[in-house]
Design brief:
Blueprint: H1 6-14, E1 22-25, H2 32-46, E2 54-58, H3 70-81, E3 88-93, H4 114-121, E4 127-133
Parallel strand pairs: 1-4, 2-3, 3-4
Helix pairs in contact: 1-2, 3-4
Length: 148
Amino acid sequence: MEIKRDRYLNKLISFMWDGQVKVITGIRRCGKSYLLRNLFCTYLLGEGVPADHILSFELDLTRDIRYRNPLELANRVREIVENQREQFYLFVDEIQMSDEVPNPYNPDGKKITFYDALNDLKSLSNLDIYVTRSNSRMLSSDRRYRLH
């Protein structure tokens, strides 16, 4: 049985292409990933978005473990999206699993975080970014996009 989440889905739809990172937060196992990867993805596909234009990374899976490194994720997404005319969607699930990494250009300086990677990717005009997070402490300044 599928539980419809039209209210939350419509909120996501209303924030599409607003130039901001959309952060979906909530308690564990409440359906954040399902909302993004199933309901919203189905909506996008129904609107004619090609499946290969929906980039999805699940940081809790070993398949995507290398993308816990924010530099790896940003590089991979840029490889796919940069210099393309088509629109792409980026889904990053379980962002709390991301790592901080040393800055290769300033090893004694502040570490590079997922916030840095998302801020960088946000500059791509053909990329719309969505992330899920089980704990609202990370990216708490993005409360405007919390769906509850």
